Amino acid sequence: MTTTTEQLSATTLLRFATAGSVDDGKSTLVGRLLHDSKSVLTDQLEAVEHASRNRGQEAPDLALLTDGLRAEREQGITIDVAYRYFATPRRRFILADTPGHVQYTRNMVTGASTAELAVVLVDARNGVVEQTRRHAAVAALLRVPHVVLAVNKMDLVDYAEPVFAAIAEEFTAYAASLGVPEITAIPISALAGDNVVEPSAHMDWYGGPTVLEHLETVPVSHDLTGCHARFPVQYVIRPQTAEHPDYRGYAGQIAAGVFRVGEPVTVLPSGRTSTIAGIDLLGDSVDIAWAPQSVTLRLSDDIDVSRGDLIAPVGDAPAVTQDVEATVCHVADEPLTVGRRVLIKHTTRTVKAIVKDIPSRLTLDDLSQHPAPGKLVANDIGRVVVRTAEPLALDAYADSRRTGSFLLIDPADGTTLSAGMAGASFAAAEEAPAADDDAEWDF
Question: Which of 197, 260, 266, 354 has the fewest C-beta atoms under 10 angstroms from its C-beta?
Answer without folding.
Answer: 260
